[in-house]
């Protein structure tokens, strides 16, 4: 073989080999699909990287609403109806039934170790609005209004310093007569 064509052949094999390995990985069931399966190589790192880049570009810098008692109370009601099912309530020891079997397991947002109180509120708002693909974190853009998404985001940003009357809304038995979640 001439040097030129050997080089060309090598180049073509080089270009094809990765997609072929990738195809085999998925086609023959090597990729993890069960929630209990170990993560794919680099899965967590790549997903985090992509999420961070998107949020940096798109998350609003400031909240248009204040963390006043009325908004926090509204946020608490929205949380109990839409989020506690996965993310738990203050003082709840066990991860809720659905959350336990998920991959990744949803962070318990009122557990002091997992709170998002250090995240800028716009970052949380972005996650609530857009969801996080392939994690089970839903997007609420189609079911909550922007005001409602800000209210629940403000609640989580202040989860470590909520007034007592707001905390009272976050009990398992709390009345969750919610204003209709859809305002669109
Ligand atoms: C069906 C389960 C489910 C529901 C319901 C749900 N989430 Fe999530 N949420 C998740 C999962 C799983 C993650 C973890 C995603 C990840 O690891 O990237 C998550 C992540 C988050 C995060 C990011 C936490 C962090 O540490 O960065 C926030 C904030 C959040 N959810 C807020 C909410 C709010 C607010 C609601 C309700 C309006 C809600 N979620 C409803 C499953 C859920």
Distance between the termini: 68 Å
Instruction: List low-confidence stretches.
Output: 176-180
Named at the architecture level, the CATH assignment of the largest domain is Orthogonal Bundle
Class by alpha and beta content: mainly alpha
| Overall shape | elongated
Count of separate structural domains:
2
CATH superfamily of the largest domain, please?
Cytochrome c-like domain
Q: Biggest sheet, open or closed, and with what strands and sense?
A: none
SSE arrangement, N to C: HHHHHHHH
What percentage of the residues does DSSP assign to strands (E)? Answer: under 5%
Alpha carbon gyration radius: 22 Å
Structural write-up:
Mean pLDDT is 91; it is low at 176-180. The protein is elongated, with a radius of gyration of 22 Å. The chain folds into 2 domains: 3-31, no CATH class; 56-170, Cytochrome c-like domain (Cytochrome Bc1 Complex, Chain D, domain 2), CATH 1.10.760. Helix content is 48%, strand content 0%. It is built from 8 helices and no strands. By secondary structure, the chain is mainly alpha-helical. α3 (69-82) crosses α7 (146-157) and α6 (121-130) crosses α7. Heme C binds at residues 82-83, 85-87, 102, 104, 106-107, 116, 124, 127-128, 132, 135-138, 140, 152, 156.
Question: What is the fold's blueprint, element by element?
Answer:
Blueprint: H1 3-27, H2 43-58, H3 69-82, H4 84-87, H5 97-100, H6 121-130, H7 146-157, H8 164-167
Bound molecules: heme C.
């Amino acid at each position: 073989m001439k040097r030129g064509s050997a080089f060309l052949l090598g180049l073509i094999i080089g270009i094809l080999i990765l997609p072929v390995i990738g195809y085999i990985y998925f086609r023959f069931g090597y990729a993890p699909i069960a929630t209990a399966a170990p993560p794919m190589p680099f899965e967590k790192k790549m997903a985090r990287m992509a999420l961070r880049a998107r949020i940096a570009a798109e998350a609003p810098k400031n909240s248009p609403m204040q963390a006043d008692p009325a908004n926090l109370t509204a946020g608490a009601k929205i949380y109990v109806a839409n989020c506690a099912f996965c993310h738990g309530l203050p003082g709840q020891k066990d991860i809720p039934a659905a959350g336990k079997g998920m991959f990744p397991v949803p962070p318990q947002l009122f557990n002091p170790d997992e709170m998002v109180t250090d995240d800028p509120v716009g970052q949380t708002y972005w996650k609530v609005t857009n969801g996080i693909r392939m994690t089970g974190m839903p997007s609420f853009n189609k079911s909550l209004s922007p005001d409602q998404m800000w209210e629940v985001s403000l609640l989580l940003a202040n989860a470590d310093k909520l007034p007592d009357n707001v905390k009272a809304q976050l009990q398992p038995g709390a009345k969750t007569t919610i204003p209709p979640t859809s305002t669109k």
